[in-house]
Specification:
- The complex is a heterodimer of chains A (about 450) and B (about 170).
- Helix content of chain A is about 30%, strand content about 25%.
- Chain A has about 450 residues and is an alpha+beta fold.
- In chain A, strands 13, 14, 15, 16, 17, 18, 19 and 20 form an eight-stranded antiparallel β-sheet that branches.
- Chain B has about 170 residues and is an alpha+beta fold.
- Chain B has a single domain, classed as Nuclear Transport Factor 2, Chain: A (Roll).
- Helices cover about 20% and strands about 45% of the residues of chain B.
- Chain B contains three helices and nine strands.
- The two termini of chain B are about 25 Å apart.
- The chains are: A alpha+beta (about 450), B alpha+beta (about 170).
- At the A-B interface, strand 14, helix 8, strand 20, helix 11 and helix 12 of A face strand 4, helix 3 and strand 9 of B.
Chain lengths: ~450, ~170
């Protein structure tokens, strides 16, 4: 009997019908070990991946240990201050080299045979190296193994296991400017803080992407959070809010009716003192950025997905979320708070409280999102092998899309953009009936 | 800092608080939470109290110098209770079944006058969706003796995990 992993996946992954206006995703995409293995090679080992933020390792010799695409890495700043990503594996026999989660040190020593490496990757010491024929070439061959590519945009450090990947900014495309907009919110810039939310969900990583790009779920799923906002004197609306495909699988929700933005849009639950600080900061932004740019930076909430593993929540406050697929039905999630480098202590306290109250596994909203991914992951077992029934529907908004109208945040256009990119990269199989409209909108220029 | 004396009692603002009283307070709370009596739970807090759960990488930084899982002021505790009582708190509808064990209870004088610091260990078992999750850690609470018994000024739960394991979201009270 063939194992589940070796069975061929039945049917195309995406079925688009522009006559019936339907867009359907094969549910095997969420649960097939074969698809997961193909994703690992075609996505995770081929494109740019978010590793971490430069401010997590502010000083020379700082390091964090982190697994990306299943590979244990050391994310560090070497003694000269350069950001590095090393495979966390001794070149000698493969032992995990650094067994601390984080710290600050100039050298990494493997406990097994005491081989020692400088944090710039060079060999510091190989005990009793006189036993080798050519020590100079041994030291050359045994340097720490680097992740082939590393580039940084606005402090966001990306890596690629593919030495031939195009430059980072080419990959980021229109998404890059939304990262710049976050940096521009405060004259002092932004920094991550310690206190990382590390949690795991019993769901496929793509369910987490869909959820973030899905404004349609907000009212029903977050009913209790919307109620809390309403009671505090803020009405949530989904009117006139849009979703954008930014190309290369990146997507964006622009939200203007979902709540205040600390230091930029005041709402009653933030309190009167914050109102004054908000007005002052907003005026400073206009002076620094100009009226129009300040408007885009300050007055809109953005949820940005950078394909394939980064979500930036530029909402009430700022948070970075990284997705790390472990298995088809298991995803590790890491979330950092991003805050202005300089901030009034009361605003900071308000910011932290407000962000955590919404975002994260102990918040008033994210647990319901997690419930949704987990319930989908369990529920789709019901249609396994059921052919045409084993598809999820993401057609909402296609009616407007054929008319050339910009997709709303409460439609499913951003998800369709993600899945189209995914299908191309993974080569999952696409069936298109009718003609895809020319009107399919990409990008959004606010520079 | 002095610990409770050998009989396990401590003087707070002229009152003698015994370890037995503190244990009863913690056991009672465990029953209240396991029974999903959230109004009863909210009544254990004094006005202005806080509920905090730092992240698993917590290394003792001061409040708001780092992120957390829960950073509730009194209004947010109230909102959390209201949410958990709602049928629309999907992550807890149906409710998790929980079973709590509290142990290693120790008493210390609080930093503020009239307060008492409690340190205790917990194991919380949680069953839901065909899964069984275990949470372990310790409490670092600050309580105030009142005429109606002990009340929380700060209820603080510190996880012993390296990360929240799969499925182990904090949708209920830890």
């Amino acid at each position: 009997m063939p194992s589940e992993a070796s069975e061929r996946v039945a049917g195309p992954m995406l079925v688009e019908d522009w006559e019936q206006l339907t867009f359907r995703v094969n549910r095997e995409a969420y649960r097939s070990p074969e698809i997961f293995a193909r994703e690992r090679v075609n996505i995770w080992l081929r494109t740019w991946l978010y590793l971490g933020h430069e401010t997590e390792i502010p000083n020379a010799n700082d390091f964090k240990v982190r697994t990306i695409a299943g590979r244990p890495l050391i994310f560090c700043r070497d003694a000269d201050g350069e950001v590095r990503a090393w495979l966390n594996s001794c070149p000698h026999r493969g032992t995990v080299l650094c067994r601390e989660n984080e710290g600050s040190q100039k050298r990494f020593q493997c406990f097994y045979h005491a081989w020692t490496f400088n944090n710039d990757g060079t060999v510091a010491a190989i005990p009793d190296d006189g036993a080798y024929e050519d020590v100079a070439s041994l030291q050359q061959n045994m340097m720490l193994r680097s992740v082939p590519r590393l580039e940084i945009h606005e402090g966001y450090v990306f890596i690629s296991f593919n030495p031939d990947v195009p430059p980072l900014l080419e990959h980021l495309g229109d998404a890059a400017d939304y990262m710049t907009m976050i940096e521009q919110q405060h004259a002092s810039g932004v920094t991550t803080l310690p206190g990382v939310q590390l949690y795991s969900v019993r769901g496929n990583w793509k369910l987490a992407v869909e959820n973030a790009m899905d404004g349609y779920h907000f009212s029903p799923t977050h009913n209790t959070f919307v109620g809390y906002l309403r009671e505090s004197g803020f009405a949530v609306t989904d009117d006139n809010q849009f979703a954008y495909n930014l190309g290369n699988g990146h997507s964006l929700l622009v939200l203007t009716g979902h709540g205040g933005r600390i230091s930029m849009i005041w709402e009653p639950r933030f309190g009167e003192a914050e109102k004054v600080r908000t007005e002052e900061h907003r005026a400073e932004m206009v002076e620094r950025l100009g009226e129009e740019r300040a408007h885009y930076v300050a007055d809109e909430s953005h949820i940005l997905f950078v394909f394939p593993n980064l979500l930036l929540f530029d909402i009430e406050g700022l948070s970075i979320r990284q997705l790390e697929p472990v298995a088809p039905g298991h995803t590790d999630v890491r979330a950092w708070q991003l805050v202005p480098r300089e901030e009034d202590p009361e605003s900071r306290a308000l910011r932290m409280k407000t962000v955590v109250s919404f975002v994260g596994p102990g918040g008033l909203a994210t647990p319901d999102d997690i419930e949704a991914y987990e319930a989908v992951q369990r529920g789709i077992e019901a249609t396994k092998g059921a052919g045409d029934l084993d598809y999820s529907d993401m057609s909402r908004g296609m009616r407007d899309e054929v008319k050339g109208e910009q997709g709303r945040s409460i439609d499913e256009g951003a998800m369709r953009g993600f899945w189209r990119e995914w299908e191309q990269v993974v080569d999952g199989g696409l069936e298109v009936t009718g003609t895809r409209p020319e009107s399919f909108l990409e990008g959004r220029n606010v520079r | 800092m002095t610990q409770a004396d050998v009989r396990g009692s401590i003087e707070v603002a002229g009152r003698t608080i015994t370890r037995g009283e503190v244990e009863d307070f913690l056991y009672e709370e465990a029953d209240i939470l396991d029974a999903w009596n959230y109004d009863g739970w909210f009544a254990l807090f004094e006005e202005g109290a806080r509920y905090e759960v730092p992240t698993t990488d917590y290394r003792g930084w001061s409040l708001h110098a780092g992120g957390s899982f829960v950073d509730d002021d009194y209004d947010l505790i109230k909102a959390r209770v209201k949410r958990l009582k709602s049928r629309k708190a999907h992550a807890e509808n149906p409710h998790s079944r929980t079973h709590r064990l509290v142990s290693n209870v120790r008493l210390f004088p609080g930093e503020e006058d009239g307060t008492l610091r409690i340190r205790a260990s917990f194991v919380v078992h949680r069953a839901r969706d065909g899964q069984f999750d275990t949470y372990v850690g310790w409490y670092e609470h600050v309580v105030v003796p009142t005429d109606e018994g002990l009340k929380y000024r700060l209820r603080r739960t510190i996880l012993g995990h390296e990360a929240l394991p799969v499925g182990a979201r904090l949708s209920f009270i830890l």
